[in-house]
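To: structure subgroup
Subject: Chain for Friday's discussion

All,

I'm putting the inputs and outputs inline so they're searchable in the archive.
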Amino acid sequence: MTQPEAVARDGEVAVFTFDHPPVNALAQPVRARLLAAVEALDADPGVRAIVLIGSGRNFVAGADVREFDRPPLEPFLPALLARVEACGKPVVAALHGATLGGGAETALACHYRCAAGDLKLGFPEVSLGLLPGAGGTVRLPRLAGWQASLELMTSGKPIGIDRAIELGIVDRRVDGDLRAGAIAWARELAHAHAPPRRVLDLPVPASRPSQFEEFLRALPAAARRLPAPPRIVEALASAALLPADAALARARALFMECLASTESRAFRYLFFAERGAVPDVVLARAVGQAAVLGSGTMGAGIAISLATGGIPVLLIEAKQEALDAGLARVRAAIDAAERKGRLDRDEAEAARGRVQGSLTLAAVAGADLVIEAVYENLAVKRELFGRLGQLAKPGAVLATNTSTLDVDAIAGASGRPADVVGMHFFSPANVMRLVEVVRGRESSRAALATVHSVAKRIGKIAIPVGNAFGFVGNRMLYAYGREKELMLLEGAKPEVIDKALVDFGMAMGPNAVGDLAGLDIGWQVRKEWRDKPEDPRFYRASDLLAELGRYGQKTGRGFYRYDTPGGERTPDPEVVELIRAEAERLGVRQRQVEPGEIVARCILALINEGARILEDGIAASPSDIDVIWCNGYGFPRHRGGPMFYADTLGLATVVDSIRKLARAHGERDWTPAGLLVTLAGAGASFASWQSGRAAAADGGGRQG
């Protein structure tokens, strides 16, 4: 018989290879080829066993997420996997690398599973606001039991081969050539006349109905409020109580409910927004050696990111004591990553070996990329870049990690502004994925492409932004913080503000964040901010505490106290009294501020400032703003970011709400952005505005 594309023969064993770069996603053409192959091979008397294997680095890394927002195309994955499982000949899944989501469900539909040592098997659908909808909730418990299934699917975290074998998901490990090992095992099964071992034919493990309710109650409250985690638990409970066919149908219905939810749309929106192309990739310069100036928390974090990303880095300090402390930070972080399994022994050893120290600024002469992470002071940075302009080799990219200062002023001091860009990492830099790449007035396309390429290489999300005070993230942060500071003066307690915003979904409340970062940091920035709003109430609560030496966690007192044995946050009545007295001095009448008002004022301020940033061209798109705020500032991912959230509210509603705030609190802070007014008047959204601009750019021949 004629064999379908992607099928090879090794005697009586047929091998189907998933070959759909870059990750072998189960796009419609892949599903169609697999269905055709299974039907042809099942009918072929010369084939006694079938092996499914992935090309490249993965087996199958999941579904094609792009299809979720399009009309569905046959063959549908649940029906395809049912056909694989119904095959009359043993089907062996040969797993390696990412075996995730639909890929893991495909493996479960096979009759036997072997895997290489690099296996990462998991069900990350929850991170997209979904649940496994192609049989995983019914098949997995029959192999791994209820508890492991609940944990795997609600956490979304993958497991390695040892755990997969322990749970009974994988039958055997193959060291060496996975393809050859899988073929040999398939041949062995055929010669032994081993029957297809269908997972759905296995007995359902014993369960108590209450165990699913107990597991759901034990999930964090934030997870219980989302559509996917409770539905995952419900789907698994259905698998315990219903016949297999009914449980499969129920899981599929729950999947479709999740797919239609706003939360899942938000997750999927961010999935694509975070995977933008590197601009001008062909212009990126090679970076074989980097240098980081400053070995404090930020400098050390940047050095760790570079070293673990495969780039040798020289950590440069002025004093031996500071350098020793910085190198110790680097070693400790890499050691911790190894202990936690984020790096294996060889990776950790290689990363440690990539970091060297120096007390000589002239050592930057060997670096292709120099990243400055010194004190946030314009005069200090200008003096340093003046020296770098002379010491760095021609073509080296000079990046400043400033979070608020004028990149053009820094670049001008270098004498070579085309080589200078902003590279604003977020603290801790070795943990936070976000980098704002700031284009100066004279930054070259090659310099910008180089830092974008480096950011991608070290696993960061790089978002291009323009040069303005605070760029995108911190400029919006000041609008958000402006409102929370005013509400402190108006009588809202720090813990009440924080709780309202955490209940909305923020990772932390703004007062707790200030204490964590250090209130002295922002205080110093505001001292140097020449165009700071001329309002005596602006950030007055934070500045007052900083003036009193209450810097937050580092001093044991800030908005909260940290003097318990465990250093927990504790509300401080003294702060409430200090702010009350300051409000009286400023003539601010105090009152009770309700949680709904707290959320509305802070989030609408974010949206309005985001629209102004788009008007000013500081951000290229609403989705860039959303990626920055979800990855750098703890905005709830299930709300998609402030601009996506504005679309869900409706821009006409947003404008009406802002105008109400203007009537209540004055137009100085609450004039709606022109772009907001225009879009609302046209019945449009930020999403449609972005799509229109993208279409216009494509029509004009621009390239991303």
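Points worth raising on Friday:
The two ends are 46 Å apart (CA to CA).
The domain at 474-694 is CATH 1.10.1040.50 (N-(1-d-carboxylethyl)-l-norvaline Dehydrogenase; domain 2).

D.
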